[in-house]
Design goal:
The protein has 257 residues and is α+β, with helices and mostly antiparallel strands. Helices cover 47% and strands 18% of the residues. The strands form 3 sheets. A 4-stranded antiparallel sheet has the order 3-6-8-7. A two-stranded antiparallel sheet has the order 1-2. α6 crosses α7.
Amino acid sequence: LQDLNNLGIISRSKPKKVVGNWGTEYRVEISQKPFWILLVSLGCPVGRKSQIAFYVPLWIKKAPLHIKREFLAALFGGDGAPSDIVEGTQRKISYFCFSKLAQLEKEGWKYAYELKKLFKELGILIKNIKIKVRIKKNKKRLTFILNFGSNRITTLNLFETVGVRYTYYKKRQLARVIEYMRYQEHTLKQRKKKFKSVFSLIQKKVSINKIAKLIDEDWHSVQYFLKNGELKLNKRKDILPFNKWFKERKGKGEIIW
């Protein structure tokens, strides 16, 4: 409501509480014509979005990055599905979706590629775009699904640089995943510290098996590090499953979301 008030728009109706499988939301209805005129002039589509063609407004395309970020955050807050920890240390893939009638497939593809370009400008990779076909009320409908890349940089840029607006439960979900990813990164940094001495020990002709014992690691990890010059997390050994990590952090009073 504060954002609306800043625009001089006063809602005469109380926010409506909506409870669904996704969580609890509050919706506000605005019936003032000046607000409608403002939205339309900014490029907001009029009517059912699945039944009309619309694209990213030109002023958004030409806007600075912080404006594009707010635009995408509002979109992702509405129709985006951020990844979450589903089992152990694994994450689902984040995606964004929208629907169109079958006869608007060409327009749907154009809009999808416009969004892909905007996300790319903010360092966020759209790995692929897929279509699901469904029949509703005897009409063929297409759901465009933009799947984000699962790499850490894309996820952090999507969750931290862009984030979501106006959707509290998604904000909590993003905070949960980001904090768990930071925990993984910290664990990897701690492991890297142990491996600093590996090359000097090899130069001294210390065997791989002995090096592994000295730094309390298995010889496979030492061999991989010598061959590739990098480390990978052994998620079964190095990382607590999300539920155990959450329980441990909560017990210490460190959970703030």
